[in-house]
Amino acid sequence: MSAVARVAASLARIEATDGRVNAFTAVLADRAMARAAAVDAGQVTGPLAGMPFAVKNLFDADGLATLAGSKIERESAPAIRDAFLVRQLEAAGAVLVGALNMDEYAYGFTTENTHYGPTRNPHDLTRVSGGSSGGSAAAVAAGQVPLTLGSDTNGSIRVPASLCGVFGLKPTLGRLSRAGSYPFVASLDHLGPFARSVTDLAAAYDAMQGHDPDDPAQQARPIEPTSAQLARGSDGLRIGVLGGWFRTMTLPPALAAVERVAAALGAERVVEWPEVDRARAAAFLITNVEGATLHLPRLKTRAQDFEPLSRDRFLAGALLPAVWVQQSQRVRRWFAQQVAKSFEDVDVLIAPTTPCTSPVIGTEWLEINGIRMPARASMGLLTQPVSCIGLPAVSVPLWGLDPAAPHLPIGVQIIAAPWREDLCLRVARALEAAGVVSAPIARLASID
Amino acid sequence: MKPAQMDTTQAEAFVDAQCALLGLPLAPEHRPGVVRYLHLVAGMAPRVMDFALTPADESGSVFVPVSPTGGGPR
Fold first, then answer.
1. Among the listed residues A154, A192, A148, the one whose alpha carbon sits nearest the alpha carbon of residue A170
2. pLDDT, tens digit, for every residue of A336-348?
3. CA nearest to A308 within chain B
4. What are the extents of the domains in chain A?
5. Are A133 and A380 in contact, with CB atoms under 8 Å apart?
6. Alpha helices in A209-273, H assignment, sequence order
């Protein structure tokens, strides 16, 4: 199929379905068709030639205001250059077709965006897509594009991947350039891809690697391609199952998903990380204070224009004692050292991605182990301790594990030591090849 | 006084004092939500503040010095 035909099909699918899903905030049809024609003319070649993709609207796209899910940034000057990762994907032949909905300024786990409307879960339009990269996961699940990009500070790639039933990769902190993306928490922000297959996920990740002098947070690492490694599967890998917090803070469908993956991989060893709840608290406090610091000028002048679901959190974050966040950074370092020891005995660890399947839009509370908890914040309970210390993780989708909602997916995290994205992707590919995980396109029932 | 034990009056006073210090205007309709959220975070803070670390435990936030673009004398 030509690039023009693939992009045209993607644009037609967006046109036909996005009124129900609400994944896109901008569609770049003219740009995409021109770029596709250039690919067909042989002006651009590469492993992703002709593949349509879209990005969370916190990525710069030349000519578009970078909204970051907000009303306020509509007034920003349009970006004058694509983000580094967009340029990398297009250099490999992929074609940008649009920008995607998200929680405002990435502070949320559900993409119930008051300004732009909720992004609905394509597998059940009454439910949330997850967040904050909800549009990125939903667009892939709805078959609108085969590839998207999102960001993950506390789980914002892995949570929507879990709830929408697609694959999502959060690389090691500092691996991929963040230049040309709207920041949230400099200490914790990661960027990464979503796809319906591990092969596409790995191909996109490989294409995005590379040194970017414009990103001071990127670590000096060689380009380490993973695609050629996928066929090695899980052979020879020592795989463990995370216990403790990762079993306690879950509901039965999440536990069932982990058990299914563990059985498929022959993983019997249980590994417990110490003080996980302290690591989660540290990530929570760092996020609150750094995010509030970033937005303080706007909170002073335009608080009424912020997303009502996160405004009060931002305001409160500006007021907290400095020692709380400085101590959080020290706890984070301590926790990373303890976790590093666990990887002396295992290569890969598995854990649930979300405590449950997707909640109905508007859900305020859920109960986990007899504890009543705020539903939205709870979506990140199991991802936050992992991103807190920058470990790479792939969320893989499983199906039919929630008896109350058997049509819904749920994700399992495949976690490795820093810089070992290859191991996460190999295990994900092994599970995909065995038929344990998959990301089918949603059938998209009518909203009514 | 443990922050988690602040009552609503204390929390409101803290919010008002911090806002004044920062020059952050707080609309009356936003104040109850900010106080409620302060209680939530204050309940979480002891999980990091009560954890025994030593002076040798470094921060997870490490600054990298920035060199001039052109380099120094040879």
1. A192
2. 999 999 999 999 9
3. B30
4. 3-433
5. no
6. 245-248, 252-265
- For residue A336, the chain B residues in CB contact (below 8 A) are 60
Burial of A85 by CB count in 10 Å (0-12 exposed, 13-18 middle, 19+ buried)?
A: buried
CB A205 within 8 A of CB A425: yes
**A395-432, pLDDT tens digit by residue?**
999 999 999 999 999 999 999 999 999 999 999 999 99
Q: Which one-letter amino acid corresponds to residue A247?
A: R
Annotate A381-416 with b (16+ C-beta within 10 A) or e (fewer): bbbbbbbbbbbbbbbbbbbebbeebeebbbbbbbbb
| Homologous superfamily of domain range A3-433 | Amidase signature (AS) domain (3.90.1300.10)
Residue A308 is predicted with a pLDDT of 95
The average pLDDT across B29-45 equals: 96
Report the chain B residue with the minimal C-alpha distance to residue A213: B69
What integer pLDDT is reported at residue B66 of this predicted model?
A: 84
C-alpha dihedral over A107, A424, A392, A128, to 10 degrees? Answer: 0
Tell me the ipTM for this assembly: 0.94
Does the distance separating the beta carbons of B27 and A284 come in below 8 Å? no
CA distance A268 to A346: 12
Whole-number Å distance between alpha carbons of A401 and A296: 43
Which residue from A319, A323, A328 is facing B18, i.e. has the nearest CB? A319
Distance CA A375, CA A378 (A): 5
A chain contacts of residue B23, beta-carbon cutoff 8 Å: 300
Contacts of A350 (CB under 8 A, 6+ apart): A239, A240, A241, A242, A258, A261, A262, A265, A267, A412, A413, A414, A415
Cβ contact B45–A318 (<8 Å): no
Residues in chain B: 74
CB distance A179 to A215 below 8 Å: yes
Establish whether the linkage from the previous residue to A342 is cis, with ω within 30° of 0: no
Q: Would the CA dihedral through A91, A94, A96, A100 be positive or negative?
A: negative
Q: Regarding beta strands A167-170 and A393-399, do their DSSP bridges make them parallel or antiparallel, or are they unpaired?
A: antiparallel
Average pLDDT, chain A: 97
What does the alpha-carbon distance between residue A226 and residue A419 come to, in Å, rounded to a whole number? Answer: 11
